Amino acid sequence: PRLFNTMLQLGVRTVNLSMGPVLKDGGELLGALLVLRDITREVEADRLKTEFIGTMSHELRTPMTAIKGFTQLLSMGGLGPLNDTQREFVTTIYSNTERMIAMINDVLDITKIESGSVELEWRSLHLAEALSGVMAELKGLISERGHELTISIPPGLPLVRADAHRLHQILFNLLSNAVKYTPKGGKIWVEAYEARLDELPDEVRDVVDQGRRYTQIMVRDTGVGIAPDELPRIFDRFYRTENPLKIEAGGTGLGLSLVRPLIELLGGRIWVSSTVGEGSTFSFILPAAEAGK
Ligand code: ADP
């Protein structure tokens, strides 16, 4: 039996439509049940909430940026020398301000995704170039944690058709997760190759455009892993799994909830496989650039 659920716009009203078969105990089909529900008010309330959060996040950025700037000035000794305790406190204020700004930016991105107002600048991009930007930001953390990182991108890999800023955000999130959720001295691999449609998971193969080429990118680690019952939830907002590195890693549980819709906006899909105590593999595909574009 298949259930069907969708939203319809009927003039000014939004309607939720659900349809499902009605079966006898023995499985014999009696007919179908169709439920139409007017959800105009709910949709409007949701839109107002998204708009409110969007405006709030935007407004919060201005004072946060001022706090960050003045804290930086203090820590550089611009207003006179600091003693060790003062410097330590100012550094803590600075890093927490940075975290707060990153959180506000994530929330702002979520509201953009929800309201369908993410603006994409489509370009043909070298994956190696996108990765090197991410590596520059993460290399300190990787060496601090003593991880061994292997990147493999075959020569001649087609360019990807994407938005540079969003691709950076996706790679940064996946790679920084691999770094954070892998105990010190672990291994991380980033591999890219042309996707083979027959090797994709069923649910991904069903939705890709069979007529085009895709690049597959895999971020694999020897980290804490994710339990099977938690796997479907890691892309939910604020969801964080129970794991030995949860506290040390910090984080908000917003990263993956942004990564998935961003990949889908770029015409790709993401999936994950993982074993607790052994590691995780996050794989995603993005459309390859057509020749000459
Ligand atoms: P966070 O800010 O907590 O890192 P994310 O949305 O990026 O948020 O990830 C959600 C959760 O998924 C994490 O809190 C962690 O429990 C789990 N997770 C993500 N990546 C990995 C990984 N590479 N290995 C193990 N667990 C991971």
Account of the 3D structure:
With 293 residues, the protein is an alpha+beta fold. It contains 7 helices and 10 strands. The chain binds adenosine-5'-diphosphate (ADP). Adenosine-5'-diphosphate is lined by residues 173, 177-178, 181, 221, 223-226, 234, 239-241, 243, 251-257, 280.
Which ranges are low-confidence, i.e. pLDDT below 50, for 5 or more consecutive residues? none
- Mean of the pLDDT scores? 94
Q: Order of strands across the biggest sheet?
A: 5-7-8-10-9
Helix-and-strand structural type: alpha+beta
Q: Which band does the percent of strand residues land in?
A: 15-25%
Highlighted features:
single chain, 293 residues, alpha+beta, 5-stranded mixed beta sheet, 3-stranded antiparallel beta sheet, 7 helices, binds adenosine-5'-diphosphate
Reconstruct the topology from this structure.
Elements (H helix, E strand, L loop, with lengths): L3 E7 L2 E11 L5 E10 L1 H36 L8 H31 L7 E4 L1 H18 L3 E5 L7 E4 H17 L6 E8 L7 H4 L8 E8 L24 H4 L5 H11 L3 E7 L3 E9 L6
Parallel strand pairs: 5-7
Antiparallel strand pairs: 1-2, 2-3, 4-6, 7-8, 8-10, 9-10
Helix pairs in contact: 1-2, 2-7, 3-4, 4-7
The chain binds adenosine-5'-diphosphate.
Adenosine-5'-diphosphate (ADP) binds next to helix 4 and helix 7.
Quick overview:
By secondary structure, the chain is an alpha+beta fold.
